[in-house]
Design goal:
Chain lengths: 225, 225
DNA sequence: GCTCTATATAGACGCCGTCAAGATTGCTTG
DNA sequence: CAAGCAATCTTGACGGCGTCTATATAGAGC
């Protein structure tokens, strides 16, 4: 304790106040979950990881649940950045030149790829965002609930725009189509993340098949040429 | 200990050997998970529930993981009974008169309904059967792995038969179609079980939509009449 | 400089999974 | 029937967990 270097010119002298604890807790939590699984994350280990005492994290998160909610919230923010949601994503605006200016099967396929990629490569976030652990608990942060609902609304809007853009007449209700197609994406993601579908080579084929099914559904009963 | 009633003429005198412990442990475990969630299941509480000491269950299951695997196995057995798998389910054999003898959209819808019903009404089993908790652990019982693979194989066979029965020419590969459609069923089940999709009135509409999508996919590019 | 509040700490409590050692019972073999 | 053996059940113990309480330290505003 009685360090003979009195001031804080050396940042490594471990000051009493951490200064950036909340941020580092969130990062360390995601890291631990990614490397060792959600079950391996404990408040004590987390505290030790960032070099504070066991109870220090409780000054930034009321309990473990709140911390997990915060991690999930961050996941939703990344989610919306990576998975290009919204009607503008395909409608040829100047938002992103890499995205195709017309709606075709490849656009759908790219969207599915993005979704699956995010889920698999950010499994530690995805699991929290859409897993039952937080949602069943009835202790969701209000902000987390808002984030989630906003994401789903964006998806419904995107589907609605897809339908208006692609089909002559809407075969199925947009909301229902959104719910079912999201279920497909979510199901594939879960089966991959949870290690039930293991063959990674099959992922591309599954994505292609899903894209074809989505697309044919969007085109209604028209020929698939 | 020195009971003055020496013999076991009274069945309520709690004999040293339980006699039916394994079965009661499995039942109590499923019951606890159903009522209080998987997180609330502890070996100690489980032992207390059935009236034995904390370590008694370890003589029937090597550890908690093995117990959960056994519960999941039981789930697969129930699964295959309730969700009528296999080609014979629709092809008009004498197996079940209630099932329609021809393949149409309603057959698909009934199958989807069965699947979702099982998942929602046996959530405690479904979560274990298809959740990442067991599958990611790399400690799956061999018998559980067999049960799971057998179930998926049955589903693929069913899809293959559907395709042969319904479509003029196979639009997509049966295995891919099975993987994607199962993903849809699994995704819907997860979203319902985990409390993300709450509106139970929407379930019927989602089921209808999914059935229509599956069916149109089976019929290929033919008119949906 | 003094007080107030945010932040960090150690201590304690009751849970948890599970290992080790001993007690009790029923089956097998003589 | 007696002896031994294997299966079953018990108590005791260990370290880890979430989190409550009380206490110490640091920085901010008067």
């Amino acid at each position: 304790m009685t360090n003979f270097i009195p001031d804080n010119t050396l940042s490594s002298s471990k000051p009493y106040h951490h200064g950036d604890l909340r941020r580092q807790l969130l990062d360390a939590a995601a890291s631990i979950i990614r490397d060792e699984g959600e079950a391996a994350l404990s408040m004590r280990k987390l505290a030790q990881e960032v070099g504070v005492s066991r109870t220090a994290p409780y000054h930034h998160f009321s309990d473990k649940q709140a911390l997990l909610c915060a991690v999930a919230e961050e996941g939703f923010r990344r989610f919306r950045v990576q998975v290009s949601f919204g009607p503008q994503a395909y409608s040829g605006g100047e938002t992103n030149a890499a995205l195709s200016p017309v709606l075709d099967e490849e656009t759908i396929r790219n969207f599915i790829r993005n979704y699956i990629d995010f889920a698999v490569n950010n499994a530690e976030y995805y699991r929290l965002m859409f897993g039952g652990h937080l949602w069943k608990s009835q202790q969701l942060t209000a902000s987390l609930k808002d984030e989630a609902h906003a994401s789903f609304k964006l998806y419904v809007d995107q589907v609605r725009a897809w339908q208006q853009f692609a089909a002559k007449e809407t075969a199925v209700d947009a909301l229902r189509y959104a719910q079912v197609s999201w279920s497909t994406l979510h199901g594939m993601s879960c089966l991959l993340i949870d290690g039930i579908y293991l063959d990674s080579a099959a992922v591309a084929a599954m994505t292609d098949t899903a894209a074809r099914m989505f697309w044919q559904q969007l085109r209604g009963s028209e020929s698939s040429g």
